[in-house]
Amino acid sequence: MRRKLPTIAIAILLSYSGFSQEEGETRGQFSGNFQLDGQTYVKDSLSGAEEAPEDVLINAYGNLRYNYGKLTAGIRFEAYLNTLQGISKNYDGTGIPYKFFNYKNNELEFTVGNFYEQFGSGMALRSYEDKTLGIDNAFEGVLVKHNPYNGLYFKGLVGKQRLFFSQGPGIVRGVDGEFQLNEAFKLDSMETQITLGGSFVSKYQPDNNPLLKLPENVALFASRLNIQNGGFTLTSEYAYKVNDPSADNQNNYQPGQAIMTDMSYTVGSFGLVVGGKWLNNMSFRSDRNARQNDLLINYLPAISRNHTYSMAAMYPYATTLNGEAGVKGEIFYRFKRNTLLGGKYGTLVTLSYSRVNSIDTTNLPMFDSLRPHWNRYETKFLSVGKERYYEDLCLEVQKRLTSKLSSIFTAQYTAYNKQVLEGKDGMIEAFIFVGDLSYRIRPKHTLRAEIQFLETKQENGSWLAGTLEYTISPNWFIALIDQYNYGNPEGDKQLHYYMVRTGYTRGSNRIQIGYGRQSMGVICVGGVCRVVPASTGVNFSISSTF
Amino acid sequence: MKKQILSSILMIAMATSLSAQKIPSVDLKTINGKIYNSSSITNKGKPIVISFWATWCKPCIKELSAFHDNYIDWQEETGVKIVAISTDDTRSMSRVAPFVNAKGWEFEVYCDPNGDFKRAMNVANVPHTFLIDGAGNIVWQHSGYVEGDEEVLYKKILELKK
């Protein structure tokens, strides 16, 4: 039955496209995109890079969308032949894991097939895709959205989640409501804007455990608030999950709780963000045995900043789903033109800080047959534990020096508790400095030089990294990158990780090819990470949007 | 099965008289957290530039800064409106408004925290910029940004005036 879906969608499309010629007004539109990433792998005993028995590995996908008035349909073909190192081998193969059709008018919208959706901040439910991380937890099922009155929005969904080329065992049901008070009561002119929201999500998975009595239906409730007045915005969401023993929490029967609050204020060229987050036992998956990034129903982003420079991002943090307490703060300020610190072009200064600790817990007695429904520990809401998981402080200055020369300077301190988070290497403390200069030689020719320095006494020791990049608008770029791990405590691992990369862009078509040695590292997007193994070889990619 | 799909697609392609792609209708969020439909993005018959970016994306910020430096002149000459779509998700969404303000950008800014609009516009990576003509048709697009690309975009905007 599942396999018939695309044929049905296409049959509907066909019948609609017939109309287009008669009506002449609304016409069908095709659009889509394509991306291919490949790499060859050779053995490199120095960096620990492995060869691939296939010699070359390729990941590729293509999306095709068709829109006709209120109707949209789409499919995505994916090929992993075989999948790139670092992305789960479970992807190996080809298929059409994404296919849907959607109807939308002013009041009602429904989608059948595969879809992505987010309730509120995602704390209750978020399905999304990130190809660089190999994440895709799309639902296959039905999604309905309804907007009966101004300011009142409802969503409901039921589905199973994607697990590589198959689906997880659990069924997910969810409803979400959002109420924009000012729109509903025609108070748009009022200075204070208030939005309230609430979600209910429930998952069902049969209990096959011979020893424990596991809950087959697990519910999660969330409520949220957004208040805005002038440059001030407050966003907060609280979620409560009933008992959900799983592989993540070692069959802990304790309920889970989370709260996340962000406040921002901005006036003139000044901006401020402060936020706090506390959670306990909040992993929520549509298979209680799933691990890593598989089958997550909700999304709990890291509170730390997403750093872009490779050295600054050497020790990224991902949320500890079993419990953490965190705070963050960030100040933006632009010194205006023609002031002492602003100079001729103005200067943007950003100072950010984040810190994550454990939560305060008291262990309860170990499992015994008299207490099958076991709470592993006790904790108080908003309690903060003594263990530091992560901390960073980052100062960034962006300044144009002359009409041709612009610069970014960054100084950063990062502490990453690898001992607790990954079980080895102790607490890592690193200082990072980055200088990034762009010089426009001619209107379309730019030379960019980037120098990065990471100082640490732990793990792999200190690094010095440099990038030279030459770009010719609008078509060409070439870049030389070298990352030198000169401080590695093991002498033969004091390696140069070099890379040469060139690419050609025309409109939305891009072709890129590179060669070099890549160190083992972690790629993170939105606080979700994946480990990239060391590799040596040629890498190439082609992408296009149409 | 796959052959069937392919042949069906070909049949549709032949049966449909294709037109240029328009801005799809997707719910975005304003930087104040209100729901805003992408089909409401208009500019009274003048061109629109839609640029996908994120606060953690350096080339995106370079691109929008270059647009910002030229925006007054471009508006005077062509009446163009620039709309910046932030793809920051919940993790960094609260940074968008203060960051945009500190930068002094005067673009319309909307948030696409779960990538719904990005998907509907078939954007794979940021930055990605679209040019929409006065009739709402997507007439040009470009992925990535290197310094000087803003001139190419401006030429395309000027071509629409003719």
What is the succession of H and E elements of chain B?
HEEEHEHEHEEH
The whole-angstrom Rg of chain B is: 17 Å
Distance between the termini of chain A: 31 Å
Give the CA-based shape of chain B.
globular
Please give the share of residues in helix of chain A: under 10%
| Largest protein interface, residues of each chain | A-B, 98 and 65 residues
What would you note in describing this structure?
- The complex is a heterodimer of chains A (546) and B (162).
- Chain A is mainly beta.
- Helix content of chain A is 5%, strand content 55%.
- Chain B has 162 residues and is an alpha/beta fold.
- Chain B has one domain: Glutaredoxin (3-Layer(aba) Sandwich).
- Chain B is built from five helices and seven strands; from the N terminus they run αβββαβαβαββα.
- A seven-stranded mixed β-sheet of chain B has the order 2-1-5-4-3-6-7.
- The longest helix of chain B is centred in the middle third of the chain and has 21 residues.
- At the A-B interface, α1, β1, β2, β17 and β18 of A face α1, α3, α4, β7 and α5 of B.
Keywords, separated by commas or semicolons:
heterodimer; A: 546 residues; mainly beta; 24-stranded antiparallel β-barrel; two-stranded antiparallel ribbon; 3 helices; 55% strand; globular; B: 162 residues; alpha/beta; Glutaredoxin; 7-stranded mixed beta sheet; 5 helices
